[in-house]
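job 3f2a | input accepted
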Amino acid sequence: MSEPSVRAAEHLMLDYHFSARELSALARFLRSKAAELPESLDDFSRAVETAVYDALSITEAEQFFA
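job 3f2a | predicted structure (66 res):
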């Protein structure tokens, strides 16, 4: 499957509010598939990890990202 082309805009916006559970699951999924993710998702993956990391204590972050 090829990626759709975006002609009208370079940036698209998605207005969605993730629950803590969803964001945590998404971060774990993206981390487990990091080697398979296309480079075009690098910024998105980093943003997800940053959002999770910012919501955790240091101890929680160490456990989450271990």
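job 3f2a | The radius of gyration is 14 Å.
job 3f2a | closed
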